[in-house]
Amino acid sequence: GVLAHLEMLEARAHQEAVEQEEKEQREERLAFLKARVQELRLQRDELRDKLDRQEKAQLGKEGIVSDPALPSPRAVLEWKIRSLRGLLQVFQLTGFSGKLSRRGLRFSLRTSYEGSYLDSFHLELLLRPEFRIRRHSVPAFIPLEQLARKFLPSDLRSFLNVLSQHLNGFVGRRHQAEQLQEQFSEWLQGAPRGNSLCNLLTFRYSIPGKSQNSRNFPFRARLLYGDPCRSLPTEVAVSCSPDAPAPLAEAAAAHSELFRSLALPRAFRSL
Amino acid sequence: MDSSVCQAYEDEIQALEEEIRLLTEKYEDIQQESTFFSDEEILKSLKSFQRETQGETRGHESPSDLKAQLESLETDLSFLMKFTGFQFTSHSKKTVEKTRNRTVQKHRLSGKCHSLSFQLEFQLLETEDKEKVSTVVTDLSIIMESREDSDVSKFVSRTEEHGNLLAFFRSLSTYAEWYEHRRRTFLHFK
Fold first, then answer.
1. B64 contacts in A (CB within 8 Å)?
2. What CATH architecture applies to the domain A92-171?
3. Interface contact A95-B170, CB threshold 8 A
4. Is the ipTM of this complex over 0.90?
């Protein structure tokens, strides 16, 4: 009857009110976003102009460019701070960076292989009450204790130099194995197998497209890196399956020489 | 519909914020890289900065903060130079390319390690992939006075060929220490 009808009208009015509110919220949000986009576009365009003017000013003057407005003392100091931070970054590129604090010394040893900078390792040394290594991130298979006993506390520099050589040797070997796996996966049977120090590496490989069926990996290589500070092996043995044709056996000997003198990925590239 | 328009605006906002961040960094990098202030200018600025901002520290770092930062950085550098034997006499860098996950900077560095001088030019490429930042050196060129010395010439050409800047510094450090030790020994016997 009338009550039901009234209820229905009330419900409909309520529904319409809700829809109207939602519509207004959407429109408000849209308007807000649109305004924000325009504000950011303006900011972006101003920056582009600023960079353009900066570029023109640079091309116009030779040598050192200085701001037409004399920079504030704060700006000069901030420039110097950024400049010094840049120099500290350069020290990081040298492989060593460190900081002296009241408690002791903190060192960061960076490793690299050819042009790529790789892992960093950290070392914290206490000077008081006695000289000792407090904390470090050097892996257990690097003879840290041995080196410490040999060189510390009298020859800190040699300690760090030799430690750096061990770390660089290890990371270099590991990086070569990883790169080999990444760049030549179809040539290899599975993944190269090695130990944690990465001074023993074995793998089976074939040369795709060179006569034999490459699903059969005829070459077996075993590389031993006798010098922990170097990333080239001291002993290489490349063998062929006994039923392999003669040319392959000859190739194995040539490969052996190659692996002894070139980094693995580079050696493979020249195969 | 409305929601896709909203989404389009939100995407554009994100892209614009990113672009603004990059442009700002680029502008600041170029400003930094194209200016130079001498040590006297730095000292003068320190003095006038402290005078100017006495009491006024709202919104900015106080003069003592900037001064403290400066001193802390200089102490760190001084320690490193004494400990490693490396003294950098000049360093300039130029940002050649900067995008969201790739930065290329050209560096010019000159200095000495103990008594051996060197001059370097190289490009540093930093790429960010997921959360890993990788740093690679390209176009390394090394100038050393003592290049006629066969030992020096050997490690210089080897490290230059592979762009192994770190190995150059390490080898130079070892060689320079040995060279310095030898020089002092000879002086002792004069």
1. none
2. 2-Layer Sandwich (3.30)
3. yes
4. no
